[in-house]
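Justification of computing resources. Each target in the renewal requires a structure prediction run like the one illustrated here; the chain below, 563 residues long, is used simply to show the kind of job we budget for.
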Amino acid sequence: MSNEIITHKFRELLLPTILIAMALNITSIVDASFVANFIGHDGQAALQVLEPLVLLISIFEWLFGLGGQILCLNKKSEFDEDGSNHYFTTSMLTTVIVSILIILVCVLFEDALIAILHPPSADLIPYVKSYGRYLFICFPIVTIMGVFSQFIRVDGQPSFASAVIILANIVNLFLDYVFLGVFHMGIDGASLATLIGYIVGAIISLKYLFDPKRTFKFTTFNLKIKTWAKSSAEIIKIGLPGASLGIFDVILVYIMNLIIGAALGDIGLNIYNVCVNGLLMISILVIGFAETLSSIAPIYYTQNDFFNLNHIVRRSVIITLLCSLIFTVILLIEPDILLIFFKLHVMDNDSMFETAIMLFSLSFVPMAFSTILIFYYEGIERTVESGILSAISTLIGPLLFTSILYPVIGVNGIWLSFPLGYILSILVVSCHVKIVERKESEYSGLFFIKKGLIEKTRNYTIKSKDDNEKTEMFNHLESLNVDSSSFETLNKLINMIFDTNNQNVSVEVLLIDYGDKITVNIKDEGKREVRENVEKTFSQDNIKVSEVLGLNNIEYTINEVKD
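Resulting structure tokens:
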């Protein structure tokens, strides 16, 4: 047994996913650094005032991008291409409609939005308006591009998806320096750089629409208003747990801005901005792993492939926890790293800044584990568990502990409330899962693995027609009393894959013994002609084919087993 194909696919998807997660996050970090160095700390405080709106945009990427993507991949794993295209079309159409509403609200109600964001001093309002001038125009472009990139990423083109994001951020970074450092345009130059960068990225991403190899297609099939509304509701339901991270984050940042602004003024917003950007730095990696996991989990969970799923979940948890721990230790030892980056080391009360960063950094490790769980639960459609985690970790927990600790130990209680909020969410969902296990006895553990199926599962990675793994697989099938005609069909299927790819391919075969039937799932990363040849050669009664995540996916059901 090996996990070669899923490991390779995970690595292939991971970098583009991290880069997509970077889209607005890295823009916020880079803009904050340039503004702090070229404009000053009033400008940086203004960015923190606008932070709830920036976070709001990421909600739609998760809501329609991840929600639509999961439903599309589920339909593909069920061999329903029409259903997959329907959810893709619905997701993009809904995103466009929402984007139009976003730009209308931002342009028509600019003053009302700024009033709601409530800058702590009148001196910040000109900076907020100047930065928002181009940022508001950028919001719909980033929204559509973010959702579109999610589909490109899981349609066998992760490198193209990452290239688009890299280019958009390079253009933004370069123009930030030109507009602020060379032409001294002011804070609006930073938002103009962002707008131009994402316009360039959006134009280049349109290349996907003309690619004959893409599998997500726009369709008018059954796209009446009532059907569109119902399908949009399904997408929102699946995407809401991940998106709720952003929703609760918007509310939390808004409330914390008010609390910290009232307690410490503009300096407090500067401290909070540094802490938020520190969290963004590590969360880029964590969300990259989490979103990649949420793309792969639906397929393998639907097919009951817990052997591969266990492997990739375990690796994701270990790597993200380790990286988060390293980043935490660095900031505990040398918090000045962040202060220097945002030019806050020269300000008075720098010891207060350092204490805030050190306490806030304790949230990185529990944040990583909580985020992995949230997106995993979203991928396997456990919306209640995902909702519990996101609500407590990013809203209820921090506010609860702030209300308890702030009156007792002062402002340090605010920074300490963040790690305590994440820890509380993990404890609560662990207790909830224990209760669920009593009601749904077929599941076991935090990751809802179905009991007994791993023992009834065999996984083989075959590298040639004469591979010993292939012989071992047939020996196992013989022990299950599979009839000779099924042996011949399976052997013909596997040989056809190798012949089509001139032997240069690895084939993963998953066998699950359900007692009354045996399901054989075959995946390979070879030529798409494999699917065409299978469809032409074999009956469609018990053999189904599809493309999922750029993999040829064949399911062969053996219904007749000898007594």
